Structure formats: C-alpha cells, structure tokens
Amino acid sequence: MALTAKEMMLEALAQLEQVNMTEAHSLLENRQVTLLDIREKVEFEAGHIDGAEHISRGLLEFMIEAHPKFSDRSIPVLVYCKTGGRSALAGATLKRMGFERVLNLEGGFDAWTQGQNIPEGMTD
After folding, report:
1. Does 26 participate in catalysis according to the annotation?
2. Which one from 38, 81, 90, 92 is the annotated catalytic residue?
3. Are 104 and 13 in contact (CB under 8 A)?
4. Reported pTM
5. Per-residue pLDDT of the chain (124 residues; tens, 9 = 90+)
6. Partners of residue 103 on adjacent β-strands
7. What does the domain layout of the chain look like in residue ranges?
8. Rg, the chain, Cα only
C-alpha cells in the first residue's frame, strides 16, 4: 500500500522523541546533544540556531558518515527543520542508520524563532 507524505511523516514522528523549546534549551545548554539543521543551505544561511551543524536533508545519508560531529552514533542528535516535518523524516533515516537517540524539535526553527515555550530569561 502506498503512503502519502503526511502518513510517512506521522510514521516517522512516532519513531522519535519530541522535544519542546524548554527541553531543547536545557539539552543544548548542558551540551547533551549535537544539533542538526537539515534545511536547505539557503534557509540555513538566512538564519539558524547557534551551534547547529548543517546537512541538507537531500544529502543526509551521503554526508553524515563523513561529518566528524556525528561519528559517535551513541551521542544524541537533535534534528530540526522549518516546522518539524522534514526533520521527522530525517530523524527516522538517522535511526535506520544506527543513531541510538534521535530527537525532533517540536515546531522546528519557526517555533524557535518565535520563542515558544522558552523559559523566562532564556533567549537565543
């Protein structure tokens, strides 16, 4: 049976731990994850979360293995895109590639830049 893009995204989301802004800030502040932006290069260059590594989703499978920040697949990876859909699909791919803990940023970069759920006093 063929799946729609939405069905594939929902299936991928079910495989990943969802992280809200508060949790993301804490994980990043405590250096407990490697942050991965899988948006297109032009999106990344227009703005990104500080400290994010960039690999476009279209090149993920080919580029991640050569990237030194992702050589240890036991280190958690926090993945984000614009709103969370592409990152869910990328996260599911990372799980298939052997990454042990892959987290998806709820709401993606849009939510991050809007400051949703950020604890008082914490900003980018």
Report:
1. no
2. 81
3. yes
4. 0.88
5. 898 999 999 999 999 999 999 999 999 999 989 999 999 999 999 999 999 999 999 999 999 999 999 999 999 999 999 999 999 999 999 999 999 999 999 999 999 998 754 444 333 3
6. 17, 78
7. 15-114
8. 14
